[in-house]
Design a protein that fits this description.
- The complex is a heterodimer of chains A (372) and B (76).
- Chain A has one domain: Amino acid/polyamine transporter I.
- Chain A is 74% helix and 0% strand.
- Chain B is 84% helix and 0% strand.
- Chain B has one domain.
- The chains are: A mainly alpha (372), B mainly alpha (76).
- Chains A and B meet through α4, α5, α11, α12 and α13 of A and α1, α2 and α3 of B.
- Chain B: Keywords: Membrane, Transmembrane, Transmembrane helix.
- Chain A: It is a multi-pass membrane protein.
- Chain A: This is Spore germination protein KB.
- Chain A: Keywords: Germination, Membrane, Transmembrane, Transmembrane helix, Transport.
Amino acid sequence: MQRELVEKISLTQLFILVSAFLFGSAIVVGIGGEAKQDSWIAVIVACLLSIIPVWFYTFLLSRIPEKNLFEIMEIVLGKVISKVFILLYILYFFYVSARVLRDFGELIVGDMLVNTPIEVISITFMLFVAYILYLGLEVLGRFSEIYAPYLMGSIFAIGILLLFSRELHVKNVMPILPEGIGPVIGTVFPELITFPFGELVAFMMILPYASKVRYAGKTTIFALIVSGLILAYSSFVQIATLGPEAKLRSKFPLLTATGEISLWDFIERVDLIIIFVVMFGILVKVSIFFYGGLKGLELVFNRPYRAFIYPMAMIIAFMSIIISKNFAEHISEGISMVPWIIHFPFQFGIPLLLFPFVLWKAKVLKSEGKKR
Amino acid sequence: MVTIAFVFILISSTLLSILLDMHLYNLSFFQTLHFSLTLDAGTRETIVFTALITGLFASFFLDYRMSKKESREKRS
């Protein structure tokens, strides 16, 4: 007899998924560079401000319990209108998946497998993601549990190894806030608030599958704070090692910083460990966005989401290549347009639009329940 | 249904990418379409196009299998 594939994750797994999701491509491309030596402050500010939208997402989910964002849309807006919004979200989730995959592809072909076509990296990676999701969300959760200690451990180890290598120069971080709070605020809005923190909107598709739904919101917020602090630490290490100008110029600042590690002429080329760690973060991020999109397709086309996995995985691999001709275009699009045109409407616009309707529908459902 | 979803998602995500490129480069729709989807000589973009075609065939196959299963269930 075939075992039923389970769709439940524990709170620990949820915590790890949120953390890995936030590290994902944020660790690869480096965040908050525009705030120069204060980028670590910008990351902390953005993290603390992001508690508000994340709390809002969990509040929205708690009004109609055990339903994900798309199911709530269907209940609140009706079958026809909700389908339009769901299709838009599917596009958003797949598009962001493709962007994250491109980040990873560029990292791999730029620093590790220089003779391998980026297309091969994208396709192979998507086949791996497709296999994990085919086995279910629980497998993704368990996979994350195994790799999380390596992720956290490596990020902390980089700082310590750089310190021992005498490459960590605190003078690079000084002076603090030389131009006031302006550049920090300018970096937080819209860059940091939408990437990576606002992207947690994708977890509106995952939270209802937590084993203890009541605590899922608190766990997500706790994971957000912890990850924000670790990202700020990583940003601090990058600036202290490279300096603000070199960090801004570098394609992959953490990787460049790690390249500086050299201990006793023995511990060197630690950047390969970073690529391994980054791969895990990217895998979780792509999987969560991909899963969100697949659940949307399940609802719209009334077929199990597993049926869509392979064809959609190939579309994402294809999209990751055609979205931009080169890395410069990819980053330029990501900074100048994606936060405003793509992220803002889906992370804040539509959930806010949905808010009064959800409150009204929750009230109606509650009064109907009392009558019975 | 899988094929319909495949075609719909492929067209709309390509359109999204083209619209962003139009905005970025100040080009017309057809110029951007040509710029985005033309296979440049010497690149290995054909690999990803091939993968996309396998995705399309997979969706045909999945639809066929599901319709077969449905008709079998109806009969029994």
